[in-house]
Amino acid sequence: MNRALKVPALAVAIAGLLCQIAPAQTEVTVPRLRPLDFAPFEEALATRTGATEALEPLPGIPELQRRMDAGELTSEALVRHLIDRIRRHDEDLRTFLELNPEVLDEARRADAARAENGAIGPLHGIPVALKDNIATRGPLHTTAGAELMLDNVEPADARLVDRLRDAGAVILGKTNLSEWAGVLTMGPKIGGVSAVGGAGTNPFGDYPTGGSSSGSAGSVAADFAVVSVGSETSGSLIVPAAWHSVVAMKPSRDVVSGQGILPLLFNNDSAGPMARNVTDLALLLAAMDETDTDYAAALSSDALRGVTVGVLTADLLSPENEEPLGRIATTLAEAGALSVDADFPDPEHALALFPMLLAGGVRFDMAAAIAARRPDITSAQALFDYNAVDPDRRVPFGQQLLGTEIILGTGLERDRFEELADALTRAATGQLDEAFDKSGADVLFSIDNLHSQIYATAGYPAITVPLGARPTGMPVGVTLIGRGGADASLIGYAFAFEQASQLRLVPDLP
Known about the structure:
The protein is an alpha/beta fold. The protein has one domain: Alpha-Beta Complex (Amidase signature (AS) enzymes). It is 41% helix and 12% strand. It contains 21 helices and 13 strands. It has helices at 9-18, 42-45, 50-53, 61-69, 75-93, 103-117, 159-166, 179-182, 214-221, 238-243, 278-288, 313-316, 322-334, 347-350, 354-373, 380-389, 391-394, 400-409, 414-439, 452-458, 487-501, and strands at 96-99, 127-131, 170-175, 193-194, 198-199, 227-232, 247-250, 270-275, 308-311, 338-341, 443-447, 462-469, 475-481. Strands 1-3-2-6-8-7-12-13-11-9-10 form an eleven-stranded mixed sheet, sandwiched between helices. The chain has a two-stranded antiparallel ribbon with strand order 4-5. α19 packs across α20. The N and C termini lie far apart (60 Å). This is Amidase. Pfam families: Amidase. Keywords: Signal. Residues 78-444 form the Amidase domain.
């Protein structure tokens, strides 16, 4: 259709106003609606061996596989160790919403299969944590962190979970998140709060967790999980990973299937891997990827040598970014890359209607997914009204963002929403392509999630690598943005940067 794109003028004006106003927040302490159940593991947790004591700090996947192949470790013992750490530390951190009561059985089956036929791949017997908007078959629940969905059990695993199981992985449990992927409220701090799990905390101290994949990031940072899977609409993988000093990737559009993931905005939504290092991330993504790409083949310490890196300097200049930018420059020089300045021609204008796009996702994509599971909740407004009946239990951190999205989406029709998605995707793609072309860059470098709306809306890949800490002590990450479909190359660049920098921080948990 060639009709001019039209959106409600009042909603656009409100969007502009609300994007400038940060809602007042207060500290709220709430109990878990479903306390973590350790009963299935009590007998197993009574046994602690030298093999599990040697898991602190937790090794990466290749070393874990070496130990399991050598008979020095079993998947069952690894799971037992992780659950013990969760029991000791997660009541404070709130990274998990639910543990898989069958995970020990899954691990034992993986051990038996290894003993009989050898490992089927690098994820064989590896425990993986999943963000709780990713469907898992029973007995696990899939809640998106919402009281409304507390008892929801999906009939089948999401496609990506099927792939993980086929690769030999075992499902450790479901992680906390910013409820409904961050569209309800930002909570007392930035992200990481849900009615089901309460407010997550950052293991590095009194810092925000980021969202919406807060629990997925925190579980990896705290050595509760070997690797995890999160999801992103705009920054929801990158920022919590950066603020927890772990690695995460938002792949190119459709690299990972979205089937079975509770949506926020189909146009942007993507699941992605989280890990403590790029090697583990590459192995996890390879199992999830629909194209069966061998991402480990891209892992080279020389991947940045001779590569032109476009640093989005103009957008990053601020006192708080001075030290991180210096680390980026030093590391790129050591890695043999050519660093140039890059910028986007007009990102503010190109994506001025992004708030409307997100509101449309809530109005159509998210609401339809809820109605399919709760026929009595047929719209975002119905969800808001349901929550308002018992706010202390259902929305203990408020629902201001949801109210905003409802206002912005009022009057937006589906065909206009689809036109808006197409228009903003083209605009974001144009911004990125021009930044690459004008600078001659092979990859763009940013910090944290400053440019998430652009790459996420375009469907281009992004990956964050730990960059140490800011002067406040809060972890920070460098964000690499690639061209659409260049996921393997991007992983190679990230690996080379990681090897040259070695700036990952480790939280001090007693």
